[in-house]
């Protein structure tokens, strides 16, 4: 199993030092034992714009795979999105993996005047089909030349589908290469069931076995149920999940993600390794780059 690290792009203090925090994290992830550097998309929020960030991390890094977890295609023109992602693939020398999802926030659709009626798997699949045509060099406009540049990876970047449920998995088995999953409560048995469903769906669609990833929030510290690590996760969830009534966030915070020691984090990662995860993406709940170095040490000792 491989371990990836997510950038702290949803933290409230991200911009206190300008772009320095983002660059420090990108370089630390790339210099460490992590297999991938991950970052996602929101519109009605203060996170960096995803495709602009893609260009920056491509320049700041040389080794780690760059993973968008996730972009919502319905918030973008599909031809322009295909061009932007192909450019990112070129700038990173073929290190791009694209996670796509329908998104869980209607406000993000409204922010860019996108149609909430397209917030469906079919709406996403339609746009992915257009992007794959662009990446294949097909003419999708009346222009003299096709839309470029061509991606480094033949046919375009690897595509993972963001999912938490069976219906999404079955639908995506026809066009995605794997799963960009997330687990809130670290239930390895539930993740295992989704993985097995994906294996079956991909097999029935005549596809090669899917790439299976999952992710979860984390904070390192002591194992106390109300200690600093758990409080850090709670603070992050209150900020990030701002579209959910705060009382619901407070109710889920004690059991969401991981808060504890390095040894405890290794144990949790081992449970996902045991159920067949190809990769786990860790999601930080603070912007201190020291977290990257601490996790790097345990990953180097256990998974390299």
Order of adjacent strands in the largest pleated sheet: 1-2-3-4-5-6-7-9
Share of helical residues: 40-55%
Principal-axis shape equals: globular
The number of helical elements comes to: 11
Using only C-alpha atoms, the radius of gyration works out to: 19 Å
Element order: H for helix, E for strand: EHEHEHEHHEHEHEHHEHEH
Structural class: alpha/beta
What share of residues are in beta strands?
15-25%
Averaged pLDDT, please? 95
Q: How many angstroms separate the termini?
A: 9 Å
Low-confidence stretches: none
Number of strands: 9
Largest sheet: 8 strands, parallel, barrel
Task: Reconstruct the topology from this structure.
Layout: E1 2-6, H1 20-31, E2 36-39, H2 50-60, E3 65-71, H3 78-91, E4 96-100, H4 106-111, H5 121-135, E5 158-163, H6 166-172, E6 178-181, H7 188-204, E7 211-220, H8 228-240, H9 246-252, E8 258-260, H10 262-274, E9 279-284, H11 290-303
Parallel strand pairs: 1-2, 1-9, 2-3, 3-4, 4-5, 5-6, 6-7, 7-8, 7-9
Plain-language structure description:
With 304 residues, this protein is α/β, with parallel strands linked by helices. Helices cover 42% and strands 16% of the residues. Strands 1-2-3-4-5-6-7-9 form an 8-stranded parallel β-barrel, surrounded by 8 helices. Helix 7 links the parallel strand 6 and strand 7. Helix 2 packs parallel to helix 3 and helix 3 packs across helix 5. The protein is globular, with a radius of gyration of 19 Å. The termini are close together. 43% of the residues are buried.
């Amino acid at each position: 199993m491989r371990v990836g690290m997510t950038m702290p792009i949803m933290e409230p203090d991200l911009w206190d030092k300008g772009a320095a925090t983002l660059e420090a994290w990108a370089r630390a992830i790339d210099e460490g034992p992590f297999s991938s550097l991950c970052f996602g998309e929101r519109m009605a929020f203060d996170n960096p714009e995803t495709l602009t960030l893609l260009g920056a991390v491509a320049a700041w890094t040389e080794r780690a795979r760059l993973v968008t977890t996730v972009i919502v295609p319905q918030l973008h023109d599909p031809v322009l999105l295909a061009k932007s992602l192909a450019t990112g693939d070129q700038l990173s020398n073929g290190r791009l993996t694209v996670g796509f999802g329908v998104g869980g926030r209607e406000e993000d659709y409204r922010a860019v005047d996108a149609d909430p009626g397209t917030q469906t798997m079919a709406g996403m699949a339609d746009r992915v089909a257009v992007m794959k045509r662009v990446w294949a060099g097909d003419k999708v406009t009346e222009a003299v030349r096709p839309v470029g540049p061509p991606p480094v990876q033949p046919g375009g970047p690897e595509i993972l589908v963001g999912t938490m449920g069976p219906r999404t998995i079955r639908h995506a088995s026809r066009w995605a290469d794997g799963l960009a999953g997330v687990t809130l409560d670290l239930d390895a048995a539930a993740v295992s069931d989704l993985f097995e469903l994906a294996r079956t769906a991909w097999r029935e669609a005549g596809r090669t076995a899917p790439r299976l990833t999952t992710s979860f929030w984390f904070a390192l510290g002591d194992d106390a149920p109300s200690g600093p690590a758990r409080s850090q996760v709670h603070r992050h969830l209150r900020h990030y999940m701002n579209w959910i009534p705060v009382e619901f966030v407070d109710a889920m915070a004690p059991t969401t993600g991981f808060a504890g020691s390095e040894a405890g984090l290794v144990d949790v990662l081992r449970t996902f390794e045991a159920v067949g995860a190809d990769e786990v993406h860790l999601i930080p709940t603070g912007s201190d780059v020291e977290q990257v170095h601490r996790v790097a040490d345990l990953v180097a000792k256990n998974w390299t």
